[in-house]
Amino acid sequence: MKGYEAFFDGIQAVFERIRSTQGENIEKAAALIADAVIQDGVVHIFGTGHSNAIAEEVFGRANTLAPVNQVVDLSMAGSVNTVRSFYMERVEGIGALIFEHVRAQPQDVFLVISNSGRNAVPIDFARAAQEHGHKVIVETCVEFSLSQPSRHSSGKRLLDYADVILDNHTPFADVVVKVDGMQPGLGSASGIAGSMLVHAVLVEAAIQIQARGIEPPVFMHGNLDGGMEYNQSLLDRYWLRIRNW
Fold first, then answer.
1. What is the Cβ-side half-sphere exposure of residue 229, based on CA atoms within 13 angstroms?
2. What DSSP letter does each residue of 105-138 carry, written as one string?
3. d(CA 119, CA 238)
C-alpha cells in the first residue's frame, strides 16, 4: 500500500470512530454553545501549539458562528519561536493570566483544545474558566491523555476540568502510519480530527439555535458577492466582545 493510501485509511478510521462514539457529546457541547449565543454570549476557543490552529480554523470563518473568539498568545501559538513554545505551555500560572485577559461575560462558554491534555497552560486556563462559573468543553484524546502523567503539579489533566469531553479517538501518540524500520510514525491525525469535531459542534449549535426560532449569527463567505455587506451587522454586534478582531 502506498503511504498516502495508508494515511487516508487511517484518517477515515478516526472519522468513523468519532462518528460512532461522539454524537451525544457533540450534541451536549452544541447545547452549551447554543445557550451562550442565545444569551448574547461568546464562545472562547483556546489551544497552544498545533491546537491553536484548530481554534484559528473556526475564527472569523465563513459558514460558521460569528461569536467565536480565538484566544491566542503568540508565545505559545507554535507559529513563532516554535521550540520555545513547547516549553512555555508547561509553565504554571500563565493559563490563569490568559483567562483574565479574555474578560469573559457570565454567559460565555469555553472550548479548550489539547490532544495530550497534560500541559499546564491549557489546564490552568480551563480551571480558571470553571472557577469563574463558565461551562468548559474540552477537545482531547482521552486514551492518550490518561496514558501520560500530567505535567501539572496538581496531577490534574485538562479533561478533569471538562463539563463535556470531545474525544478525538486519534491513534496512540498521534501516529497514523507505522513504517517498519522507522522509530517515529508518520502522519498526525489530531489536527484534522480536532477541526472536524469543533466544526461539527458549531454546525450542530447553529441548528439548535434555529430550532428555537432564532436566526443563528453565522458569517457568509466574505469573497462571495454581498458577503461582507451581509457580515457587517455581525461584526458590529460582536465588535466589542471579540478581543482578537
1. 3
2. -TT-EEEEE-SS--SHHHHHHHHHHHHTT-EEEE
3. 31
Residue whose C-alpha cell reads 470563518 in the numeric block? 61
**Per the CATH hierarchy, to which homologous superfamily does domain 3-238 belong?**
Glucose-6-phosphate isomerase like protein; domain 1 (3.40.50.10490)
User: Residue 119: which residues within 8 A CB-CB, separation 6 or more?
Assistant: 48, 89, 90, 151, 152
Q: What is the pLDDT along the chain (245 residues), one digit of tens a residue?
A: 899 999 999 999 999 999 999 999 999 999 999 999 999 999 999 999 999 999 999 999 999 999 999 999 999 888 888 898 899 999 999 999 999 999 999 999 999 999 999 999 999 999 999 999 999 999 999 999 999 999 999 999 999 999 999 999 999 999 999 999 989 999 999 999 999 999 999 999 999 999 999 999 999 999 999 999 999 999 999 999 998 88
Domain ranges in the chain?
A: 3-238
What does DSSP say about strands 109-113 and 164-167: parallel, antiparallel, or unpaired?
unpaired
- Residue that is written with C-alpha cell 520555545 in the block: 84
Which ranges in the chain belong to alpha helices (H)? 3-21, 23-38, 50-57, 82-88, 94-102, 120-131, 142-147, 190-211, 227-238
Contact 116, 140 (CB under 8 A): yes
23-38 and 190-211 helices cross at what angle (nearest 10)? 50
Q: Per the structure block, which three cell numbers stand in for 125?
A: 486556563
- CA dihedral sign of residues 73, 75, 80, 82: negative
